[in-house]
Write a structure and sequence with these properties.
By secondary structure, the protein is an alpha+beta fold. The protein has a domain of about 90 residues: OB fold (Dihydrolipoamide Acetyltransferase, E2P) (Beta Barrel), CATH 2.40.50.140. The chain is about 20% helix and about 40% strand. The chain has 2 helices and 8 strands. An 8-stranded mixed sheet has the order 1-6-7-4-3-2-5-8. The longest helix has 18 residues. The protein is elongated and about 90 Å long. The protein starts with a helix and ends with a helix.
Length: about 130
């Protein structure tokens, strides 16, 4: 009986000690842009861009769009979605890639911007009006 009490007391003490009288809170710190590796943001742009689609080249994974922004013409690659020639879109984040090879198109682009999100002009106008009132 004494041995049972001894182990019971030891078990309770170990349990209380392991919990330390409450849950532990761990602070999660995410790196800021300045703290990331300097090669990560090379060629990354966060400016707002208004583009018009001139040409569309589909592939299995992506769409390659030749676009114009003011007088400048260039290529972008983005996820597959419905885009229309001569339509206007907006994007903000892009990663510039030099000498980019598309194996599916069997083509090399001198420079191309990888864009994750293109917003049609009509949706962009709606968002702009909604948040600027």
């Amino acid at each position: 009986m004494r041995l049972l009490h001894f182990w019971l007391i030891i078990s309770v003490l170990l349990l209380l000690n392991s919990c330390q009288w409450g849950p532990r809170e761990k602070e999660v710190v995410l790196p800021g842009i300045q703290e990331l590796d300097s090669t990560w943001d090379e060629g990354l742009s966060f400016d707002m861009h208004r583009i018009r689609v001139l040409e569309i080249l589909p592939s299995d994974s992506y769409l390659y769009l030749k676009v114009s922004e003011e007088e400048r013409k260039f290529w972008i690659a983005t996820r597959k979605s419905e885009f229309y020639k001569d339509s206007v879109y907006y994007y903000q984040e892009a990663l510039l890639k030099q000498n980019f090879e598309s194996k599916q198109l069997n083509r090399q682009f001198d420079s191309i911007y990888l864009v994750t999100n293109l917003v049609p002009e009509k949706h962009f106008q709606f968002k702009k009006e909604k948040f600027h009132k």
